[in-house]
Amino acid sequence: GFFAPPTMGTPASQRWPQASSVPGEHVAAGSFDTALSLLKRQVGVCDAAPLKQLFVSVAMGSQVFVSGTPGAPFVDSSLHRNFAEHTWTPRGTAGLPSVIVTVASLGERVKAGYKCFTEGKLPEAQASFIQTLQMGLVCCVDTKQDLDELREMQGVCREYVTATMIETTRRDKFKDDPVRNVELAAYLTHCKMQPLHSLISLRSAMTSAVKLKNFNTAASFARRLLELNPKAEHKEMALKVLKVCDGNKSNAETLEYDERNPFVVCTVTYKPIYRGSPLSRCGFCNAPFDPSCKGKTCAVCKVAEIGYSGTGLQNSRQQSGRGGGRQQKE
Questions:
Q1: Which tens digits make up the pLDDT trace of 20-36?
Q2: pLDDT band at 324; cut points 50, 70, 90
Q3: Taking 80 as the threshold, does the pLDDT of residue 328 lie above it?
Q4: Which of 18, 32, 70, 189 has the most Cβ atoms closer than 10 angstroms to its Cβ?
């Protein structure tokens, strides 16, 4: 008799991309080319440079290397996030790759971004939210609840990146242009942020508008601030401003700002795009832009094409089976 070694099965890292259309699982398998191809088709990723370190970290995080006897080569093994229930067959494994980017880890990064924003560390806050947004491209989830939470966090990151860009531009480029300064302060108050951060933006816009002698605009900010149920000191400040504005119902300067007409802000032109006006959106993060920006790289997520219409980002194998449902738009 003789010993017949068993037929070698398909490595998990090779099986993963064969069985999935989830970009994060391709990245975990080290199949960067196919991952980028999927991201291009799904959400229009056109600049992969910011994703390089992320891809390497995810690929390394899905593998483990164990040393054997002295002189023997290391044994590598693929890690699975469903290790307790996956099965092995001669063709490979039904396991799902372990991806270091999770909804929980992204949630912690969002909290870190909030903290930086509260402390006025805008560059750090912006970097944190952009990185969190990009990490969502390779996040893998297995339940609808996690998918919904991921989409919500992506919307939060988009709003905060927009907010930090508006405020940084206001401080750096228009500190000597009071009219433009107040316009950007006004736009900032319409970003969807946490109540504390909305209060900070309204207080700043209110103060700037009073200095410009745009009392009607300042009164509007004061009323919106009071609706947030602020602390006593902020409430007192808003009431004082309202009292002053009630005695001076006028605006000294004309602003490109209409609070009664819903709008979004283009982070290239820093101009409002009012409801009903044409616009283009990023294929990934859904950030709005002036139509003239179509085809350019998104200024918010830094990786996807403005105006691209793809199949939608797939973060789970449960999204419309193996294919990929369209990414939910905010």
A1: 899 999 999 999 999 99
A2: very low
A3: no
A4: 189
Mapped onto helix, strand or coil, the DSSP state of residue 288 is strand
Q: Give kind and range of the element (H or E) at residue 92.
A: strand 92-93
The pTM of this model reads 0.89
For residue range 125-180, what is the model confidence (pLDDT) as tens digits?
Answer: 999 999 999 999 999 999 999 999 999 999 999 999 999 999 999 999 998 999 99
Distance CA 167, CA 58 (A): 33
Q: H-type helices in the chain, by residue range?
A: 12-18, 23-28, 32-43, 52-61, 103-118, 122-135, 144-173, 178-188, 195-211, 215-226, 232-246
**Cα–Cα dist 134/285, whole Å:** 9
Token pair in block for residue 232 = 């006593």
pLDDT on residue 73: 82
- Cα–Cα distance list, 191 to 60, 168, 246 (Å): 37, 14, 27
